[in-house]
Design a protein that fits this description.
Elements (H helix, E strand, L loop, with lengths): L3 H28 L6 H26 L5 H23 L2
Length: about 90
């Protein structure tokens, strides 16, 4: 298992990449606004909420004690995977 600092750095990098992807998708939405269905906007709101939850879990991990950070890793991985899946699904719309 990698150290807490290595893991935190890896997750921060991955989350920053996903947040950049969210921004790219938002730009795409703005460019195609008239063609989009209301459910596209709702889905983007859900994705942004999920990203916020992932960011919250990352902050919990950063503040966690050395003894408890690995416990938070599972929750963060769940949000990470969910966010990636949602972004992939959204791009197919």
């Amino acid at each position: 298992m990698s150290s807490r600092k290595e893991y935190e750095a890896k997750v921060r990098t991955r989350l920053a990449e996903l947040e950049a992807e969210v921004e790219r998708l938002q730009l795409h939405i703005k460019q195609a606004e008239e063609e989009l269905q209301p459910e596209h906007h709702e889905k983007m709101d859900e994705i942004k909420e999920l990203a916020g939850k992932a960011r919250g879990k990352l902050e919990e991990l950063a503040a966690a004690s050395e003894d408890s950070w690995e416990h938070l890793q599972e929750g963060l991985e769940h949000y990470w995977q969910s966010l990636g899946n949602e972004l992939k699904a959204f791009e197919k719309i």
